[in-house]
Amino acid sequence: MTTPDPLTTYIFTGLLVAMVITLALEEKIHAKKSMIVGLYAVIALFLASAFDIMPDSHALLSKDHSIIGEVHMPVYIPGIEWEVIAIILGSGLFIDVVSRSGIFTWTAILLTKKSLGDPLKLLIYYSLITVLFSAVLNNVAAMMIVGSLTMVSLEKLDRKELLLGFLLTEGLLTNVGGLLTLISSVPNIILGNMAEIGYVSFFAKAGPYVVIATAMTIYMAVKLFKITPLKTDEEKQKAAELVASFDETDGIESNAFFNFSWALLAVFILVIATTSVLPFVGPLGMGYVAVSFALIALIRYKHEVDKNYSAVDWDLLAFFTFLFVVIDTMKYSGVLDLIGGGIAQLLALPDSLAGASLLWSSSIASAVTDNVPLAAVMGNILKGIEGTPDFQWWATIFGTNLGGNFTPIGSASTVVAVAIIHRAKLPLTFIGFVKKAAPFAIAQLILATAYVLIVLK
């Protein structure tokens, strides 16, 4: 393994840019995202081997992180974030199994009845649930659950034309909700711990922004996606009569399995939310929890698990696997350090300008790279500078989280949202996502900039 020279770094930077451009043209070249990223992963690994920049072994660490040996494996294996893969696989399987009990249909119909068939009220309900679930669950699991409920509600109301706007809004709100607590997202954990921000302090400082940003995002969704409330008495009466005819018990084949699924879902949410502090389970991570609960749920259909396996979004899993491989080569080729170094230059600017520049540059960087290694790079840069102001840490936290709303590959939850949209056979290209999401992302970042510089400085 050799240290990459500047030319190698620039070659890999060009490869990353080319991948993003190719993804933007996916509809024109008629190729799946997983296929595109997979080809770039093959090229990136070949170049990394040719330039000898990848390690052929990795340190084996003890619980106190001291090196106790080396483990040899294919160079592309350690770079894959298996935790995310396991969460997507486990959550997807779990949700598919428990949905057969009818709990999601029951919940969706109940919320639809509560809204009296008013699309605006329904959007508000689902938006608030999205933020809440994103704060206490993994963003991916939150998007999967809320997306499933939304599809049922709008199908019942015969308002599928609103589905794209609903799902996009929910996908964007997962990254807003992910800012609420110290453990809501991996960048929060990395940067919050490096900055020595306590759980209560994090919630107290991030909470007001999340409330305002949620309200603003809902308002923008209403305007941009034309989600209008019912206006006339005739419309309201017709909608009320329609939802009154819905029976939330439809789809419940077994009351015993229905009740068991509710109990299992409640325990799943509780365990996922507290994984980091649970003895024995904590070191195994949320991926272990998701897969474990999926297997427990599958016991109900142990004789036909192949039906549930066929419902897994293997294309989504392949996309993430290949994407992690590409990003790993970017780390060893010096691309992430190049991005981090460029952002570090901004710290020489006057305080307020440096904070704003940090927020926007880290958001743009996280829109095209994995925000987890980016957060680690940024955290080490800020930690290495004596006397880094608190608001600059917050600028980086906001930027790495909200940047995921710019592109459909910017965060795991937006990727999942787009996958659900495509599963519903709704047209949405890479460029189409950027066009629809950019106004939200820009507005959220402008609000974050003002909040960081005025409230948190």
Summarize this structure as a short list of keywords or feature phrases.
21 helices; 70% helix; 2 strands; 457 residues; 2% strand; globular; mainly alpha; two-stranded antiparallel ribbon
Give the structure's gist in a few sentences:
By secondary structure, this protein is mostly helical. 70% of the residues lie in helices and 2% in strands.
β-strand number? 2
Quickly count the helices.
Answer: 21
If strands are numbered along the chain, what order do they take across the biggest sheet?
1-2
Q: Give the overall average pLDDT.
A: 83
Q: How are helices and strands ordered from N to C? A: HHHEEHHHHHHHHHHHHHHHHHH
How far apart the termini lie comes to 43 Å
Structural class, by secondary structure, is mainly alpha
Radius of gyration: 22 Å
Stretches where pLDDT is under 50 for at least 5 consecutive residues are none
Strand fraction: under 5%
- What gross morphology would you assign? globular
- Binned, the helix content reads over 70%
Largest sheet: 2 strands, antiparallel
